[in-house]
Design brief:
alpha/beta, Rossmann fold, globular, 17 helices, 3 domains, 4-stranded parallel beta sheet, Four Helix Bundle (Hemerythrin (Met), subunit A)
Amino acid sequence: MKLFNTFSNTLEEFHPISGNKVSMYVCGPTVYDYPHLGHARCYITWDMLYRYLKFKGYDVTYCRNITDVDDKILKKAKEENTTAEVISKRYYEIFAEAMKKLNVLKPDIEPFATKTLGEMISIIKDLIKNDYAYEAEGDVYFRVKKFKNYGKLSKQPIEDLIAGARVEASNIKEDVLDFALWKRDEEFGYPSPWGKGRPGWHIECSAMSRKHLGKTIDIHAGGADLIFPHHENEIAQSECANGCKFVNYWLHNGFVTINKEKMSKSLKNFVTIDDMLANYDANTIRLFILTNHYRMPVEFSSEALDGAKAGWKRIQTSVNEALKIIQKNNLPDVKETEEIKNFTDSMDEDLNTSKALAVIFDTVTRLNKSLNDKDVNSINKYVSILLTLTNVMGFNIEKEKLSEEELQNKLNSVINQFDFLTEEDKNLKGYALMEKIIEYRNRARQEKNWTIADKVRNLLDSINIVLKDTKEATTWEEK
């Protein structure tokens, strides 16, 4: 298996530090606002790597942090006249729910920055002791120029980095490039040997990674925007504190762009995950993202998403047709098949998901031919392959039934347009309310009131609920 290592700028054969055990760290979100499609791209990508490594037989420990102490969180708290804890808790819960909706697995370890302050202080003490850091009026800074390898990840000479650094105006730093490990903050800070303050952003990941995965880890991943200064600074402080190599493989995913510009909150050109899920299901969003190689930019467009929607429908329809014929619990073992080999060959080539997806669509074509031929043995084989491969890539090929709450939330968005419902009807919840709506529609159809019948169908269709009329009954399902 080969992975593109940003540090060496080459494809490298993947060899874990310890046998088949893999330590993997991904920079998680700063929880101060709604997660957007850029976040979806990042966490779907590394979720797919996590799943694939486990499929390959590796024992993976995946750590993805939560930054719950940050200037942006405090700014939001002040704007809303509340506390940082309230803001971070609210947006963490929104983020966690968005990841669940996207079928992104929870990491094995999800540490919070505020719960790892002791480890951060310990690392900063070591850096001061070794003369790589200095205290100045309650702040603590890292001496960048003392670390000879600074700039190796981002491939820029240290002189060129001065202009690109996030330099905070300060008269107390020894050098313009020195970055904060600890920031004095009498109002919102935490106790430390240097007075009340807060950790710098970069030290948080070094501390959480070391605490939960060790001093040297196999894989560190994140968005390409983190290469400098965040990951560059992580390397400097971690290697100077620990006296050893920090990361063996640095992996970075490309941006989601709109009109060729990076999607970001600062540019105010982002689309939230919830906005996306109102129009496209999680499988469509995942297919849209994974159709592109993870290191390349992904251009957001409704045309590309509609294409992904049609592609997913093709997979889903074929498997659903097959599952009407065969017994899912009787499927054959397909590990040694040609399709699985082609899939793993593609994924072993720096996670070439576009080639891996081509294997899946080729298998769908073969399944459709087997369905036409009524070849049950082949149907069993191809369904088993598709269930295996789509699961490895994180698709949920068998739709889960909407929960009572999820259905209620969908219906709430259109309930006031069902003018035939009484107030008593509107107090019904979820499935009971849906039954009442269908009951009214069926009555309208019996009375040949096609205006009402079509209105109900169209309103439900607008929230991605499809009605199916048969001689026996009217049923519904989510698109």
